[in-house]
Specification:
α5 links the parallel β5 (155-159) and β6 (179-181). This protein has helices at 58-68, 86-93, 111-120, 139-150, 165-172, 196-207, 218-221, 233-242, 265-269, 272-275, 279-295; strands at residues 30-34, 72-76, 99-103, 122-128, 155-159, 179-181, 211-214, 247-248. Helices cover 34% and strands 12% of the residues. The radius of gyration is 18 Å and the shape is globular. The chain has eleven helices and eight strands. It has an eight-stranded parallel β-sheet with strand order 1-2-3-4-5-6-7-8, with helices on both faces. The protein binds (1E,3Z)-4-hydroxybuta-1,3-diene-1,2,4-tricarboxylic acid (0GY).
């Protein structure tokens, strides 16, 4: 029986008609953080999900990739699909080598399942510590999953709120793999770049050279808002200029759980030259770093 899913009341659907960005990404540029949602009648949303989104299927993602001037995508499993990676895997399988994936796994996943995911392009797993998205687990749970994938050469993507970094410090600083932090650890951008909160995140990257950051999601972090999201620029610029070989950029399409506005994806692309101010930095951010991590690892 096919289940029909309805998005949550008040759910903001992704932008139907984004503008063409003025900034043109370099050849082979990678959108290193995006998702596919359903469609729910083919890939049902997980019973344990905390939200039900509007469907956002692979064909739409690939069309947006081309429209924005990107060549490749990294599709990150979103919590609304739980640990059923089939929508993401299906998108990878039809991307003709132009997409890689980051999965969510649970204890008990078999080596054969991991090998199948590797063959189709999965190169990492995501540990999500954001309490509104997933129920927290004991530390041993996360360590067990990391051990399972470290031997495949995969990396770990982590998503946490700035306030939770201190609590997760011990785990995050003892992972044996490359660790990619989503959205700069979600700083409060009304605080200073040189302040204590962002300082702890900078310390994480300074002291641990296996830690990378996505300088993504100005739309989630900004108080000043669209189209420039200018209050986020100093934070992202600092990370890009201090750790140029360990940064990634992504659209975060289709932007789940946005409450007040839905970004125009063209505007998000136009943030890039403000946070990566030279051709060299932009090439590292959009091409060299994601290619190394996702296509050459
Ligand atoms: C993001 C951010 C969010 C959601 C998820 O997996 C997810 O459900 O990542 C969020 O709500 O902040 O990176 O897409």
């Amino acid at each position: 029986m096919t289940t029909t899913f309805f998005p949550d009341a008040g759910w903001l659907p992704h932008h139907a008609n984004p503008s063409r960005p003025a900034y043109v990404p370099p050849p082979r540029a990678v959108d290193a953080h995006c998702h596919v949602f359903g469609p729910g009648h083919l890939f049902p949303y997980a019973p344990e999900r905390k939200y039900t989104p509007t469907d956002a299927a692979k064909a739409e993602l690939f069309a947006l990739r081309d429209f924005l001037g990107f060549d490749r995508s990294v599709i990150v499993q979103a919590t609304c699909h739980g640990a059923d990676n089939s929508a993401m895997v299906d998108a990878l399988a039809s991307a003709q080598g132009r997409a890689r994936g980051v999965a969510t796994i649970r204890p008990g996943v078999s080596r054969a399942e991991l090998a199948d995911m590797h063959a189709v392009g999965v190169r990492g797993i995501r540990l999500n510590f954001v309490k509104r998205l997933v129920d927290p687990k004991p530390v041993g749970y996360y360590r067990g999953l990391v051990d399972l994938v470290a031997e495949l050469g995969w990396h770990i993507v982590v998503y946490f709120e700035a306030a939770d970094l201190a609590e997760r410090w011990n785990l995050l600083t003892t992972l044996p793999t490359t660790v990619v932090v989503d959205h700069m650890g979600r700083p409060d951008v009304s605080r200073p770049v040189g302040g204590e909160e962002f300082g702890l995140f900078v310390r994480l990257m300074t002291e641990h050279d296996n830690v990378w950051s996505k300088v993504s999601c100005p739309e989630r972090l900004s108080v000043s808002g669209p189209p420039e999201y200018s209050d986020v620029h100093p934070f992202a610029r600092y990370i890009v200029e201090t750790f140029p070989d360990r940064v990634l950029w992504g659209t975060d399409w289709p932007h789940p759980n946005m409450k007040r506005h839905m970004p125009d994806d063209g505007h998000l692309v136009d943030v890039i030259p403000h946070i990566a101010r030279t051709d060299d930095l932009r090439r590292k951010l959009l091409v060299d770093n994601p290619t190394r991590l996702y296509w050459e690892a």
